[in-house]
Design goal:
The chain has 167 residues and is mainly α. The chain has one domain. The protein is built from four helices and two strands. Helix 1 runs antiparallel to helix 2 and helix 3 packs antiparallel against helix 4.
């Protein structure tokens, strides 16, 4: 039960700091890119895409502020959640002996997922802005790559590493 788990403050390692800085930089780039481009965009932009990455719905260009806002809120929420690793869900029983290793792994996975989500929002926003400027619309191959990494490769990596931690 989470209430009985040890409550530890997990110190950041260099890789953790790099991931956090990368996430913040991507968020800032997304905001700055939109701020700089917004005045030159058409009044209507793609707001939803089908599985092939082609737009199937359009909205007022004000919709573009939704992705940076959502990405920022999500980043902050997951950053705060990462401060409480004893509340995370684990596949093993957490003890005093394994808490640091399990918590560090859990916080790092959450940090990477947070970065990939921010990257996905930034990529979508970037593609919409560029497409609206050039009067073309498609999410392109980068979106597919990001989704494949997030939905297939990352869970496999997490599972394999979790198995290694159990040994």
């Amino acid at each position: 039960m989470a209430a009985e788990r040890p409550k530890l403050k997990i110190p950041f390692k260099t890789v953790d700091i790099c991931i956090e800085i990368a996430s913040i930089m991507v968020l800032l780039l997304m905001w700055f890119h939109l701020i700089l481009a917004f005045g030159n965009l058409p009044d209507t932009v793609p707001s939803h895409f089908n599985a092939a990455g082609q737009p199937d719905n359009y909205s007022d260009k004000g919709f573009l502020w939704f992705l940076p806002a959502l990405g920022t809120l999500m980043y902050v929420g997951l950053f705060i959640l990462n401060r409480y690793p004893h509340l995370h869900n684990y596949m093993v029983n957490i003890t005093e002996e394994n808490a640091l290793i399990q918590y560090r792994f859990s916080t790092r996975v959450l940090r990477v997922v947070n970065f990939l989500c921010v990257l996905m929002f930034a990529y979508i926003n970037y593609q919409i802005v560029i497409g609206a400027k050039n009067n073309t619309s498609s999410l392109g191959i980068g979106f597919l790559i990001t989704v494949v990494v997030m939905s297939i490769l990352l869970p496999v990596f997490i599972y394999l590493y979790q198995q290694k931690l159990k040994k």
